[in-house]
Amino acid sequence: EDLFQVADLMQPIARRQKVSRVLVGAVLGSLFFEASTRTRVSFGAAFCRLGGSVCDTTGFTFSSMAKGESIYDTSRVMSGYVDALVVRHPEQGSVAEFARATHIPVINAGDGPGEHPSQAILDLYTLQREFSRLGKLVDGTHVAMVGDLKYGRTVHSLFRLLALYRGLKFTLVAPPSLEMPSHLIELVARNGHVVEVTPSLENGLRGADVVYATRIQTERLAGETVEGYTPEFQIRKALVDAVCKPDTVLMHPLPRD
Ligand code: NCD
Q1: What is the largest CA-CA distance in the chain?
Q2: Which atom of ligand 1 is nearest to the CA of 35?
């Protein structure tokens, strides 16, 4: 919430109504070993708008990792050149490994099916803004999470972040093979929230204040076939009108399928 106050102050800078050069001379190292549009460009654009500059590699092909260099060595070498790193990598836990190897700040921009904390923070920021417009609080709200809850890292991070609030109800709607990892459900339930799991979109969406949908992470399916992800799973206006509230907030981190 402290960050959100800073974000509010910085809105005019993002819109170029005000100028800040607070990062002049600073260099961001941007290492994206997985596909990205929004996360990579938004971090880079933010750094540039504040007067800093960005050095990047994308994919494995153009970094020394293609030559077999370790995460440890890559991180140590990069930290000699740049002031902070933002890293996306296909393996869960890999970004923490980058962080352990260096003293410069390392931001997790997505570690495989693990976490995507910056997306969760901006999702919460967006939700808080919508809720302040609607006169609602995050405490006590009903959030429906829909889609690939097994491999979708955005929902993992958002689920944990929202669990810092009080008295939420979560309905988790996923095809049978793509359910939310049980350790996350247990963690959130231990924090005093109600967590319901259902394969039925209609039941999951009924009465929700927030619907957060994600795509199926096809690139992470290890030969598994997904059953039950039928067109009936789509968030359709007719269904939202029938079972949600007039002020239900619909969210998606994109890309959508
Ligand atoms: C997400 C991701 O990479 O996890 N994209 C994003 O950063 N907004 C969601 C996704 O790929 O489905």
Answers
A1: 57
A2: 3
